[in-house]
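Note to self: keep these together.
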Amino acid sequence: MLRTKRLVLRPLRAGDEDWIIPHITDPEVHRWLTSVPHPYTEADGAEFVARFAGRPGTLALVADDVPCGVLTIEPSNRFADDRPDDWELGYWLRRDHWGRGLMTEAAMAAVGQHRAEHAATIHSGWITGNAGSAAVLAKLGFRGPTHTEERHAFFHGRPVTVERVILPADAPFQPLHGTADANPARP
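Structure:
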């Protein structure tokens, strides 16, 4: 578990699908995600939570006791078999929490902890046109775009262009307000 000035980042747990489903299916959120099924069903939400619950690399973001998003730093092949075994940062935030800097704050803490535990390059990217995600990754110090790739986006029903960036293992990084919490039982 991580705490920042405004957030708690905790592992997913049973029942999280109840808030994930209505927010990840918001078309303004869903359209910027490639690996999320469309339509996204209750079974999809339950399967996602069951698969990633308790994993330290998949975190629920909670602001003022309200779950508001998910952040992952996982090997990318955990999401799709055709992806490499590289560390991949992914995230989404419910729309009513956009524009407050919460994702930047969460990602700074999570990347900071990950960098303390793993000396590895982290990969990420955004669907072309997603200025919010591009800004978050730039604030974190990701470099690029290194290249673009076409990736199937279920919401769109076709491939979309993804701008790919990296945070090299040797790049300077200064975590923002993130601290690990030694008591995972706390909410």
